[in-house]
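Morning - zinc ion inputs below, output right after.
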Amino acid sequence: MGSRNVFGRLAAGLMAAALVLVPATGISADVTPAPAAARPPLAGKIVGIDPGHNGLNYTSPAFLNRKVWNGREWEGCDTTGTRTTGGYTEARFTWNVAVYLRADLIRMGARVVMTRTGNHGLGPCVDTRARILDRAHANVSIDIHADGGPRSGCGFTVLEPVADGPNTRVIGSSLRFGRDVHAMMLRDTPLRVSDYYGRDGYMRRDDLAGLNLTTMPKVLIETGNMSNAADAALLVSPGVQRAVAAALAEAIARFLAGR
Ligand code: ZN
């Protein structure tokens, strides 16, 4: 009990000394006052996220086979998406990345619009997904997918729009955004540029509603190849999913900042 008193007195003495010493150091005088609540980097921006496919798409081939106009030709409403040999679905992957990305973007001050609300539904069709984002007047949008390519191939590919009328005004800006996505995927994720699809990680596509019908800058990322064992191991990892989301958030921030 006696020792506690000694320590108590010692602590009180040290605190008093500290209180005296702080002003004497002059440190406080050099500290610039923090600006009142710095404006978050994406304040006032709207970002669209389209997580490819949906968890129950496989239950209704009739719904998926319904034809929709994609701006250039008739296309199926949607597909089931691919899966790893272990059964991890693309729909689940794209949903997880989208949820992480949404959180990152909201933290950065953006308003986020998504084309689906969970991974336990059907659709919507690809033309509806494009329209949801167009009607929200998003400043930029990303379509998130993973590929079901040849087993031997791996890596990511950025799919870019080709001018067709509705999207003509956003081709240049989409290509700029695609370069940001490509650069941040390489910098911030373990996924590499595709060695089996496109050229140097890029591919122009004129047959996808998401790219044909967009009225804001948009690209589609095939994040990796779910059929490839090495890519699949990365894609199913929550840590890699978070890294992909963070890379996409940084690409969006860079693009919107005009960097
Ligand atoms: Zn897909």
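Note: The CA atoms of residues 53 and 148 lie 13 Å apart.

O.
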